[in-house]
Specification:
The protein is an all-alpha fold. The protein contains 14 helices and 2 strands; from the N terminus they run ααββαααααααααααα. It has a single domain, classed as Ammonium transporter AmtB like domains (Ammonium transporter fold), CATH 1.10.3430. A two-stranded antiparallel ribbon has the order 1-2. The protein is globular, with a radius of gyration of 22 Å. It is found in: Cell membrane; Membrane. Pfam families: Ammonium_transp. GO terms for molecular function: ammonium channel activity.
Length: 429
């Protein structure tokens, strides 16, 4: 009798648990789709930031590059990139996944394909701002396609499938939402592109003087930062890849950590520039918030609120120093600070996980093992992005070229590359 009673009680309990699991699974898919839509909207944020921080005569060109990053990325990542990143067995000694399953189309994974597609487009878009005002549109389409088809998927395959074939996953590398996989890879690809194309005309004088070329509309830039800040809640929160029960609590924690780091990044840049320049710098403050967002992206699921504050604070100061160093010492022209925001702070944020992670971090008694893994993983991906981008752009430079003519640059890419203008009235540059 007791056995029969237990069976009767067990069956309803199992049915209830199965129903709860099914609801949580559906909630998880819904959350991933909503998060992906937020990340999709970030493309508008990047467009506004880059447009506002650069010359009015190139606004249309910026729009076209960001638009095509999403369009080309959506196509190429679906056809090839997703298989390289998430496909079957690894090949070439674990270098990448077998891409034989082209044009990935599985109804059980459509939501993940969409989520990863918008991440991929973000990595490509980072290059756009760093080469603004002098890069051929046709050549830009080539590097955008290669980034989304091959460069980004290869480095992503080293961790994000989260299986025993991903070598960085086996080492215990942590990059929760992509400080390195997305941002540092895109940021250091941007460094190579900016170096190879050279600075804008008039940026550096013959005597070594650095001339500021201010953007034409800080309002657009600020609106772009607000949109990116909003979209980042999907970028990081969606990377929990589940919702319901404990996962709901984890998503909330990730979103709070993301918001705190952004706030402290902006505050740190504001006060640092106030002390350094005598006035709080607007563009640096905006970039400080973005730096905090990039910095926290690797560890947003592995640090607490105090770690988030620390990472945001550090990132907000470092981005100011990095922008100045790259501009004044390295003489690499980056109109929007993309290399520093995404490349430098992407690397920094990834490494700082080894310091602030509540499990394994240096400050929490974990020793230096995790710190070493974080450094190795980030440097490996950055090195891959630098080498691959250089090879592609060097070939393009020697064949069809990557830079517009002096006349085209001075008169604006909108007129010469697209035969139009973004504004139908006179705009001071």
């Amino acid at each position: 009798m007791n056995f029969m009673a237990n069976m009767l009680l067990q069956e309803p309990a199992d049915a209830v648990q199965a129903a709860v699991d099914a609801v949580n699974a559906d909630l998880g898919i819904l959350w991933i789709i909503i998060a992906a839509i937020l990340v999709f909207f970030m493309q508008a944020g990047f467009t506004l930031v880059e447009t506002g921080f650069t010359s009015a005569k190139n606004a249309g060109n910026i729009i076209m590059k960001n638009f095509m990053d999403l369009a080309v990325g959506s196509l190429m990542f679906w056809v090839v990139g997703y298989s390289i990143m998430y496909g079957g067995e690894t090949i070439l000694g674990g270098f990448m996944r077998d891409p034989s399953d082209l044009a990935f189309f599985s109804e059980d994974d459509w939501h993940n394909l969409f989520f990863q597609t918008v991440f991929c487009a973000t990595a490509a878009t980072i290059v756009s701002g760093a080469v603004a005002g002098r890069f051929k549109f046709s050549s830009y389409l080539i590097i955008s396609a290669v980034l989304t088809t091959f460069i980004y998927p290869v480095s992503g395959s080293w961790l994000w499938p989260f299986d025993d074939q991903a070598w960085l996953n086996n080492l215990g590398f942590i990059d929760f939402a992509g400080s390195t996989i997305v941002h540092a890879v895109g940021g250091f690809a941007a460094l190579v592109a900016a170096k190879l194309v050279g600075p804008r005309i008039g940026k550096y004088g013959p005597d070594g003087k650095v001339n500021a070329i201010p953007g034409h509309n800080l309002v657009l830039g600020a609106l772009g930062v607000f949109i990116l800040w909003l979209g980042w809640f999907g970028f990081n929160g969606g990377s929990q890849l589940a919702f319901g029960g404990d996962d709901s609590i984890a998503v909330g924690s990730v979103i709070i950590n993301t918001n705190l780091a952004a706030a402290l990044g902006g505050i740190a840049a504001l006060f640092f520039t106030w002390i350094k320049y005598g006035k709080p710098d607007i563009s640096m403050t905006l970039n400080g918030a973005l730096a905090g967002l990039v910095g926290i992206t690797a560890g947003c699921g592995n640090v607490d609120a105090f770690g988030s504050v620390a990472i945001g604070l550090i990132s907000g100061i470092v981005v100011v120093l990095s922008i100045e160093f790259i501009d004044k010492k390295l003489k690499i022209d980056d109109p929007v600070g993309a290399i520093s925001v995404h490349g430098v702070c992407g690397f920094l944020g990834t490494v700082l996980v080894g310091v602030f992670a509540t499990e394994g971090g240096v400050l929490y008694g974990g020793g230096f093992g995790q710190l070493g893994v974080q450094f190795l993983g980030s440097i490996s991906m950055i090195a891959w992005a630098i080498v691959a981008t250089f090879i592609v752009l060097f070939i393009v430079k020697k064949t069809i070229g990557i830079r517009v003519s002096e006349k085209e640059e001075l008169e604006g890419l909108d007129a010469h590359e697209h035969g139009t203008t973004a504004y139908n009235f006179e705009v001071d540059e």
